[in-house]
Write a structure and sequence with these properties.
The complex is a heterodimer of chains A (114) and B (109). With 114 residues, chain A is an all-beta fold. Chain A is 0% helix and 54% strand. In chain A, the strands form 2 sheets. In chain A, strands 2, 4, 5, 6, 9, 10 and 11 form a 7-stranded mixed β-sheet that branches. Chain A has a 4-stranded antiparallel β-sheet with strand order 1-3-8-7, with no helix packed on it. In chain A, strand 7 and strand 8 (73-78) form a beta hairpin. By secondary structure, chain B is an all-beta fold. Chain B contains no helices and 11 strands. Chain B has strands at residues 3-5, 9-13, 18-25, 32-37, 44-49, 53-57, 60-65, 70-75, 84-91, 97-99, 103-108. Classes of the chains: A mainly beta (114), B mainly beta (109). Chains A and B meet through strand 10 of A and strand 5, strand 9 and strand 10 of B.
Chain lengths: 114, 109
């Protein structure tokens, strides 16, 4: 089984709809992240969480919200989707206890907003 | 501002060697990462450098010069499966990863 899973893997929705993307991990990591990736751009951080009670905004948090329901689960919501939120979304995790804090990624969710 | 620069695209021949460069300007430095990403898939971790010098891992090596704000990823004995994008990322003083846009590597037979 994959260590970091994301659901759904693909989603097509309409402008104005509420969307939730979910991420689960079995790696036992404390830290979790949500990124979006657009063609020609680097990964951009949306939100991150260093433990269940810790939520922080990233570079591009406007239009998004998150929930850390448990150490293993971190959800990203788009309250009212708009077409420029069409992108590939990745969840990642890292381990506070390691020296490198290397991030490990889920398989991604391809979101299309019409 | 913070900036990571790497070439957009490179082409190399199967069996050859290729070097992908990355230059960075960030607020602080807590390590540099290289990831591989096949089209439509997740980035996967390749290497980490925090001290100057060369780190070797099989066919892949990564070099860092902190004084020059420069790193490179060296891929030897190229295989067709190495066709992918290679992402350079720097951890800044806030322990946030700043990502380059990636270098698409095309391997020709």
């Amino acid at each position: 089984d994959a260590d970091v899973t994301q659901t759904p893997r693909n989603r097509i929705t309409k402008t104005g709809k509420r969307i939730m993307l979910e991420c689960s991990q079995t790696k036992g990591h404390d830290r979790m992240y949500w990124y979006r990736q657009d063609p020609g751009l680097g990964l951009r951080l949306i939100y991150y969480s260093f433990d269940v009670k810790d939520i922080n905004k990233g570079e591009i948090s406007d239009g998004y919200s998150v929930s850390r329901q448990a150490q293993a689960k971190f959800s990203l919501s788009l309250e009212s989707a708009i077409p420029n939120q069409t992108a590939l979304y990745f969840c990642a995790t890292s381990d506070l206890q390691t020296d490198t804090d290397t991030q490990y990624f889920g398989p991604g969710t391809r979101l299309t907003v019409l | 501002g913070q900036n990571i620069d790497q070439p957009t695209e490179m082409t190399a021949t199967e069996g050859a060697i290729v070097q992908i460069n990355c230059t960075y300007q960030t607020s602080g430095f807590n390590g540099l990462f290289w990831y591989q990403q096949h089209a439509g898939e997740a980035p996967t971790f390749l290497s980490y450098n925090v001290l100057d010098g060369l780190e070797e891992k099989g066919r892949f090596s990564s070099f860092l010069s902190r004084s020059k704000g420069y790193s490179y990823l060296l891929l030897k004995e190229l295989q067709m499966k190495d066709s992918a994008s290679y992402l350079c990322a720097v951890m800044d003083s806030n322990y946030q990863l700043i990502w380059g846009a990636g270098t698409k590597l095309i391997i020709k037979p």
